[in-house]
Every structure is written in C-alpha cells, then in structure tokens.
Amino acid sequence: MKPLYISATGQDSGKTSIICGLMQVLRRNGYDPGYIKPVGQRYVVWEVHNVDEDAILVWDAFKLPETPEIMSPVAIPAGFTTRYIENPDVKPLEDRILSAYSTISRRHPFVLVEGTGHAGVGSCFNLSNARVAQMLGAKAVIVAPGGIGRPIDEVALSLNLFRQYNVEVLGVILNKTMPEKYDKIKRITSKGFELLGTKLLGTMPYQQQLSSYTVKQISEEFNYGVLCGSESLHNKIEHTVVAAMEPQNVLHHIEPHTLIITPGDRIDNILLTLVLSESGEYREKLLSGGLILTGGLKPETTILSLLFKSRIPVLTASDDTFEITAAMKDLNFKIRSDDTDKISATYELVRENIDADYMLERLQD
Hints:
The chain has 365 residues and is α/β, with parallel strands linked by helices. The protein is built from 17 helices and 17 strands. The protein folds into 2 domains: 4-206 and 335-363, P-loop containing nucleotide triphosphate hydrolases (Rossmann fold, 3-Layer(aba) Sandwich), CATH 3.40.50.300; 212-328, 3-Layer(aba) Sandwich (Udp-n-acetylmuramoylalanyl-d-glutamate--2,6- Diaminopimelate Ligase, Chain: A, domain 1), CATH 3.40.1390.20.
C-alpha cells in the first residue's frame, strides 16, 4: 500500500489533528499505520536529537515502536537555509529521509506522512512537500481551512506543484469549517474542487474543544510567572476578556473557562473577581478559568493574600495589557500527547466527516 502524504495550504491548518484521527480510525479497522514527518520546522531536543514536535506527539500518544528521531529525520534549525544555499547538497538529507522511511515501512504495512505547510515549503533546500512525496512514492491529500474562495485558490497552487512532481492528489479535506456555514461550504467547494480536477474528501466542522488551551500552556508559551493557583493551571481556556473596563461591564463577558486579562493595579476588577469567585452563579465560571495581571504590577499585600486563598490560577506578566492581548489574538497551541480528550475528539471528527475508505482504496492502486 502506498504511503499517504498529508499536506496543507498553510501552517496550523490542522494536519496533526487529522493524522491523530486517522491513526485511531485505521487502528480500529485493523490496520497498523506507521508515521513519519520527513521535514520538521518546530522541534524540541530529544536525547540530543532535534525532533519535530508533531513526531513526539504521535510517538507518545500512540506508543509507536520507532524512536522519535527516526520519525523526524530532518528538523530544520535556525540558520539552516542560509548554510544550505551557500553550500547546497541535498543528497545527505534525502538519504536520511529514505533510510528512516525504509525502517518504518518495514514495520508497518501503511505509513502516514505529515508534511510541513503548503506544497512548496522546503523548496529553498530542495525538499518541498511535493518533492518529498515524490521521493516516497506517496499519494497526497491537501488540508485547507474552511471557506470558499481562499481555500480553492490555495489548493490550486499546491495542486500545480504536486502535479509538476507527478504526485497524485487524492483530494482535499476542509478543516475548521464554521457550523453555521457548513452545508453551503461543503456544497460549493465540492463543485469548486471538481473544476480543479480534484475531489472534496471531507469537511471537518470547527470544534471549540480542539482550540482550547490551558493556563499552564499560556505560562509556558510566554514565560509568564505563576503567582498562585498552581493546582489549577490545567484549567482549559475557551474565552478571553480584557478587563480594562469598569467592573460592572466586565460581568457581561464572564463565561465558563474565561481568561481575564487586567492591569495589576486595577484593584476594582481584581476584587470583583475575588468576590464573584466566593459564591453565586459566577463561582464555577471563575474557578474554571484564570487571571493574568499585566504591566509587571501586583496588588498590595491584603489583596495578594486573598488571591492566594481563591484557588484561581493567576499569572503575572511585565508586558502591558495591549501587548499581551495582541500576542494572544491568533494563539494556536498544538495538541499534546497528554491532551487525551482532544485526541479522542479527533477520532469522532475524522470517522464522521472524512471518507477514509475512499483514500485507502486509492492507496491500493
């Protein structure tokens, strides 16, 4: 069976979520899929090796027998592209990818290959997604964000490059499609992709659960201090409120799993949070969320002692409220191996919305 290359029209399109879902669907249908991410951009150090974050996730979440450095043969460090262009030699990189793939494909009858960004990413060192798919003899799927005009335009660009390398594209998966537009988008894009000579394989509805993150993740991502409430750092955040307004106006924006961002000297809003967390309809809402005190400011000792008693996770940041809010505007945290609820949710999404049987059939050709 040929490998399946999961590409996309851009970064953070949801490839990893789809792969997590496919891994579970395939396993429950009697397959033993392997995984490789030939070229990675965001990496961590694993036992002295640079290993892509997604490879670590899949290895840990699905307990695959291969070690992470085999599943992530090329991880691009800072300055790599400049060094390559000055001294271009792609063969050692190709050999590393082919050797890793050979090891994985001997253990698994079928391999999921995760790409990086759109079809052309990696062209600057002669390892674009299209080229790597060609090397591995893979058939490709393109993941695009929900919409109509933009995804069709972006898919057209990726299709052209895959076709240039003689890589068969099985079709397109639309991800993060807003539920209120789901039927229209599915109907129109299906026709639009047919005009491009490809097929809509599935439309995944946007699911808030997959976009949520924890107070701990925010702290780690931005290196914010933890003032108190460390036992509640795993609270999931689904809404954000900038409490630079009067307290009575803040009330209207507090929902379950809300992160409140407020200057550290806005005692009125801090006191409001404390009072509401004690009892009444807002108690569970506030205890399920978190608080960021901005501007490097902390309230005086009496207020601090009340915060410590509240069980609300409180972070401190030296940046001002505007800078923090801007940084969080397009926040997109990757799924982690301990996000078991998110990984389980990807199974249902893929099983219900993607034509996996069609893809498997075409991979037999």
